[in-house]
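Could you join me in thinking about how sequence relates to backbone shape in a protein? Label the sequence line and the structure token line clearly, so we can match residues to local backbone shapes. Once you have written the record down, we can walk along the chain together.
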Amino acid sequence: GIGCLFWFAQELDWVGLKTELLRVKGPWVILACLLILLEFVLRAFRWKILLLPLEKKEGLRAKISDLFISQVIGGTLNTILPLRMGEIAKPTIVSNRSKLPFWSITATSIMERVYDLFGMVFLLIFMVLFLQPNLTVPPEEQVLIDNLQFYGGIFGSIALTCMGIFFFLASRQQNSRHIFETILSIAPRPIQRFFLHLFDGFINGLGNTKDIKGIWISGLISVGIWLNGALAIFALFQAFELDLPFGAACFVSVAIALTVALPQAPGFVDVFHVAIEKTLVLWGQSLLAAKGFALIFWAVSFLPVSLLGILFFAREKLNISELIERERSLQSKE
């Protein structure tokens, strides 16, 4: 993290950066903040759909407002604490408020990750197939962009096919677990454990429901979540007066998603900034504009949500030691 911060700040023209930031159009920044918050609303509605079979089974009900609060708190804790503690806080809050079983709710959280992968892959394919950029860049950079589009399309198609197979196997539940284990046998043991855990969690979250409509609606909301994130980035393009197409916003969204999956310091104050800077420079923007955009995008992505999440967290009176204990319990189950 320190290395990336040093890399980001080296040879930085602070006076020029201040001038660049003063030119930013405030209304577009506010719109981007609202779009980021809208993402958590969409995630709450998607989670509600995933919880419907469990609600029916238990005869209990989770409120949309509770799901929204848990999503915001989870995002906040993932930002400011290590070990993705927010992924434990979310089902804990929903369980405390709705009385639904904690471990069953956790299984639906795993399903959320699967749907997020689906949304990201769709966004990547959408960018490659329909949003070919027409930028004036040096030939060597244009070759790189063309290669990213070409291989991105291949990666997206393969990933989408694999997800289709995954959904097919999961729909067959335990009868297909042996097949899935055989497929994974060529991978190292840690990778096998991770994907088997994902597979089992998806099956438990899916339950015995045959609600194909719910699965499709969840998938469409997932696509909407990722398009919404790209719209937030596109709004910031307008704030900085960057002449970039919506396809570039899709590209940045996917790049950032892959970046934040990497282990890094709390607050995402290192790798995140470098990734945005290098991505925008790739799209023909000046180094100063890229650095300024990275700073504002970081603030838009994390500050409003974190402030709201801290407020919600204080009202919940959650016990951090309890979250840590549940984290250890989850790891022992894996």
About this structure: The two ends are 29 Å apart (CA to CA). Residues 25 and 239 are 5 Å apart (CA to CA). The chain has a mean pLDDT of 77.
